[in-house]
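## Example pair
The file below holds two records. Each record gives the amino-acid sequence first, followed by its structure token line.
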Amino acid sequence: MHTARLTVLMPPERKAKIERDAAEMGISSGEYVRLAVDNFDKLTAAEEAELSSLVDEVNKVIPKMAASLDGMSRTLQETHEEIDRTLRAAGIRK
């Protein structure tokens, strides 16, 4: 197997983080960097377009989701108030 050395300059904190992360995975920092490089894929134009389309779809439904969550929150608050009134009327809660 032929190898070549690559020197990469970075702040000491970044190097320490790489070493910590690698140790947690039980691998060397060199192997950690090799895995990161091997798994770093640039998106194709088609993938970028698909992701952009998905982001647009998600952004369209977020207001509906927020409204639904607001409605659930109001329902929970009303239910809490009703339970509180019931418990107070029964003398269980003061």
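Second record, same layout:
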Amino acid sequence: MSLESIEVTARFDLQGQVYPLSLLWKGQVYPVETTGRRWQAPTGLHILVLTANGLAFELCFNASEGRWYMVQSSTDRLLA
């Protein structure tokens, strides 16, 4: 697993829950249509998202750094 730093537009609700709204990846903006499973890991809060054009991404928000990352597995690199 590797982490690629990316730009994410997100909102936080009153309880502090974060909701990604869009992500900028390789020069293109992908609006987030829905979010799925989320879990806390040593690298940060991981959130599965589905974009408006049907692409799925695993995002990671590292609150201590205030940064977003895209998680890439070894199979992602094989398919690229």
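Notes on the second record: Strands lie at 2-12, 18-25, 28-41, 44-51, 56-62, 67-72. Helices lie at 74-79.
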